[in-house]
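so i finally got all the pieces together for this one. its two components total, 426 residues if u count the protein bits. some of the lines might not be protein, just check the labels. i wanna see the whole assembly predicted at once instead of chain by chain like last time, that was a mess tbh
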Amino acid sequence: MVLMVDDDDDALEIYSMLVKQTKFADYFTTINDPLKALGFLEKCHQTITERFPRYILLDLNMPGFSGVEFVEKYEESYLSDHQQTEIIILTSSVREKDNEKVLSFDSVAHFISKPLSKDKLISLIAESAA
Amino acid sequence: MALNSEKPCEMEYRLKRFSDQSYRWHQVRSVPMKNEEGQVMYWIGSATDVHERRTHEAQVAVKTQQLNRINQYLDDLVHSTAHDMRVPVARLQLLVDAFSELPPGERESLLPKFSRSVQHLDSTLRGLVQVIELQGVSKLSDHRIQLGKVVEDVLERYQKTIMEAGASVHVHNPQNCEITYVRAHLYTILDNVLGNALKHRHPHKKPQVHINLREEEGYLLISVQDNGRGIDMRQQDNHLFKPFHRINKQAEGLGMGLYVVKTILEKNGGYAEVKSDPETGTVFNLYLKEYSDPLK
């Protein structure tokens, strides 16, 4: 399972459309609000039926609750129980130092510069579904 | 000191000029004259008026400081602009990819997204132009400007909004507050801050705005207090005054307003501060310095 968290509704919709073209539609979820995303993770965490995401693709630059706060909350609640899960930051930043802070988190694996390509996304989903 | 060391010395200090009683910088040199045994027999001294040079140096220092500030400012601006252009450009790249991947029947649904991205790009560019214009030469008002009058004018522009929202606006102390400033800048500042106070209103409260004008510690203080939905300062961190930053997705605008306000104020030695609470609303304190030419 791959979860994408971004406040850009257009981008989320496009990725959903692209994934629907493949056999992996069931393994991809998009949420446009970091707080709702935390709620979703809690649900996955509580119930066995929902699979906890293998990858969380996270936009850093969201109004209100920021990506960094999301990572902090995430690590507080889920890091120890879901060590396999990796957060991948989707960034449109052009300045390297903007990204340094968030890379120091244990759960953050790496950065991908926007736009995330369809092929990269599909390969991540395929890996998590395997 | 110099006398004891018996070595030539040189220093600069101010001497009073007899003719007009003004203090002027002088370079003072003294050299000991020694006899064959190396004993100091007498000193020869000179004092040269270097006032022009000193003044010039001070001016250059001020200018250098200004240039450094402008440089830093431009550096920040370039980065934040580049970032804000990257957002719609990245989405356009994604759209082009998606367009070639999706079957013909589904492509049509991408068109409005193309259009929104292009608009986003366009408004980012417009915002940039707005900031560049602010940096240009601005015409200083010849007369002292009555702040109360400017507030009145700006409120008139918002009259329709105020009526529709049933808002009450109180101006405290509008008389006696005068300032030398770039008139257009005053309008821009007040337009932005009053606009914010009316725009970010509380969903269940009638908007109330208090505008207070007074002098405080060498500044002219414009304080704008609203009872709107407030800003969670913890969440906003110090992004509030950054270019292209929007407080929330719902409110319209480019996110340039507060950045422009801050730029204008700081350009002239002033500053802005904000206190806010989702319970009670927001207070913007704008500290204005009298406009002065630093090289005079």
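Chain A has five helices and five strands.
The beta strands of chain A are 2-5, 28-31, 55-59, 86-91, 108-113.
anyway lmk what u think
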